[in-house]
Design a protein that fits this description.
By secondary structure, the protein is α+β, with helices and mostly antiparallel strands. Helix content is about 25%, strand content about 25%. The strands form three sheets. Strands 9, 10, 11, 12, 13, 14, 15, 16 and 17 form a nine-stranded antiparallel beta sheet that branches. It has a four-stranded parallel beta sheet with strand order 3-2-1-4, with helices on both faces. It has a four-stranded antiparallel beta sheet with strand order 5-8-6-7, sandwiched between helices. It binds adenosine-5'-diphosphate (ADP) and magnesium ion. The site of magnesium ion (MG) has 2 residues, from loops.
Length: about 350
């Protein structure tokens, strides 16, 4: 074992699940997160309660850890770069830089030969109107930075949707207008790249979103082998281009002919990979810990088909019902207040084998 203490920037449920996986492999974990008693800290050895860009906290984290990782993509790039001067940081901070801005992200994907929606940068209401004209009035307007769970977005379905005031309504910040992709389904692929460049890819999940938030991931996705292979090959290209170490989640739209359009990259473990903890021997969380700790990657094959359902807000009340069902793994995040839209936990139901 080359690393003994792992630092995790961010204190949410992804950090919690990473800390649990790290603990099982005898690693200690330290969480950097401003909110005390956060979900991740409940499973970690220690929390440094400070802002992600607090210089003193970063120095303390670097001095206390053998390797540092992160559980969300909006870690300040400067903070990651400062850490990287004195401790290995995986995935590489360049992955953060690429993923934090939807325009940088799409330009990078296109450079890797991976198609995305067409797009225009929108920095004013006039830019928006010109961009919509180019897309015949249809498109998805998004903040370039900090968007998640469908927040900071507005959809234009046709030229009848008036763009009046839309630039200001999204906060007057830099935006992107993407062409509206006529997808038949959405999939994601969770892949890991180890220290030596070896890649392990889980089978693609088919994702259904509700109000912009992931609702379910179903495995296997109803796609052809060729589409699944295209998703894997896109992941491999992208991971190699970033000289990546760790787990990445890549979201795609599937077009009616099976072709793929990449939507976004998450340089971290991903909600649509939570099913791996129930249906694979090595979950995405353990896989990420293995990758950043220079351990051999686990086999990404699954032993069961399954469906993962997020428990959002009041869905937490359905936990007793889920617990009484067979073949269901329930995972809760230790959040006390169930606000609407807040991810409280998830459940993965294994589909039982047909017995001959
Ligand atoms: N260009 C697009 N065309 C059609 N639908 C889109 C487009 N962009 C986003 N969507 C829909 O909105 C959802 C959320 O968008 P996404 O870019 O993934 O934002 P977030 O970062 O909030 O997850 C997507 O999963 C998809 O259902
Ligand atoms: Mg998304």
């Amino acid at each position: 074992m080359t690393s003994r203490t792992i630092g995790i920037i961010g204190g949410g449920q992804l950090g919690r699940m990473l800390a649990a996986a790290a603990g099982r492999l005898n690693f200690r974990t330290i969480i950097l997160e401003p909110q005390a008693d956060c979900p991740a800290a409940q499973f970690a050895n220690r929390q440094i309660v400070a802002a992600y860009d607090d210089r003193q906290a970063l120095a303390e984290l670097a001095a206390s850890c053998d390797v540092v990782t992160y559980e969300f993509e909006n870690v300040p790039v400067d903070a990651a770069a400062i850490l990287a001067l004195s401790v290995p940081v995986y995935p590489p901070p360049t992955a953060l830089e690429v993923a934090q801005d939807r325009i940088t992200e799409k330009a990078f994907l296109n450079r890797c030969g991976i198609p995305t929606a067409r797009y225009h940068a929108v920095d004013s209401q006039a830019d928006l109107e010109a961009a919509l004209t180019d897309f015949a009035g249809a498109g998805v307007l998004k903040t370039r930075r900090m968007g998640y769970d469908g927040k900071g977005q507005r959809v234009f379905r046709s030229a009848e949707d008036s763009p009046g005031g839309a630039f200001a309504a999204l906060g007057g910040v830099p935006l992107i207008l993407e062409s509206l992709v006529p997808f038949t389904r959405e999939i994601s692929v969770i892949a890991a790249r180890g220290m030596g460049g070896k890649v392990a890819c889980y089978d693609p999940a088919e994702n259904v979103h509700c109000d912009g938030i992931l609702d379910t991931s179903t495995i296997p996705a109803a796609i052809s082998d060729a589409t699944a292979e295209a998703a894997r090959s896109a992941a491999e290209k992208l991971l190699a281009a970033l000289d990546y170490v760790g787990v990445v989640g890549i979201e795609f739209f599937v077009l009616p002919d099976g072709d793929l359009v990449a939507n976004e990259i998450a340089p971290r473990v991903h909600n649509s990979g939570h099913w791996t903890e129930a249906a694979c021997v090595v979950s995405q969380f353990e896989q990420h810990i293995r990758a950043i700790a220079a351990l051999p990657l686990g086999d990404p094959a699954r032993h069961s088909d399954c469906i993962m359902t997020n428990l959002i807000g009041d869905d937490i009340d359905s936990v007793p019902a889920w617990l009484s069902r067979p073949n269901v793994l329930v995972h809760l995040y230790g959040k006390t207040e169930a606000r609407p839209g807040r991810k409280m936990g998830h459940v993965t139901e294994l589909k039982s084998e047909e017995k001959p």
